[in-house]
Amino acid sequence: MTEAPHAVRISSQAAKALDTLPEHVEDTVWDVLDAAAAAPWGFHQWNEDDPEGDDVRYASVGQMSLTYWINRPLRRLTVLNIVWLG
Questions:
Q1: Which domains does the chain have, with CATH numbers?
Q2: CA-CA distance, 4 to 19, in Å (whole number)?
Q3: What are the residues facing 62 on neighbouring strands?
Q4: Percent of the chain clearing pLDDT 90 (strictly above)
Q5: CA 3, CA 66: separation in Å to the nearest integer?
Q6: Within a 10 A sphere around the Cβ of 72, how many other Cβ atoms?
Q7: This prediction's pTM
Q8: CA 50 from chain center: how many Å?
Q9: DSSP H helices in 1-86
Q10: What is the Cα–Cα distance from 18 to 81, expressed in whole angstroms?
């Protein structure tokens, strides 16, 4: 039996960025978040030199990147930042 995906929350800063994105980029953000919710540690650690930073991850597709934090006890991802270089 597979576990349910992590819930996704979006910080106010990330929500503001999400509101300004073109529709196709917003769709990409949600696709990446679906993948991250299913396998949170499947993306790279944000700072691999930080031994205590295993729960902060980043994902990027093309010109879009996002950073999220994994809240293990609550099984939740919090999106900290979304960047689109477009």
A1: 7-84 (3.30.2310.20)
A2: 27
A3: none
A4: 81
A5: 24
A6: 10
A7: 0.89
A8: 18
A9: 12-19, 23-38
A10: 9
* Cβ-based neighbours of 24, under 8 Å, separated by 6 or more: none
pLDDT, the chain, mean? 93
Element (H, E) at 54: none
Contacts of 46 (CB under 8 A, 6+ apart): 53, 56, 57, 58, 67
Rg for the chain (alpha carbons), in Å?
A: 13
Instruction: Give mean pLDDT, residues 28-32.
Output: 96
Q: Is residue 27 over pLDDT 60?
A: yes
Residue with tokens 């994994």: 70
Judge whether residue 18 has pLDDT over 90: yes
Strands across the sheet containing 44-45:
7-10, 76-84, 64-71, 56-61, 44-45
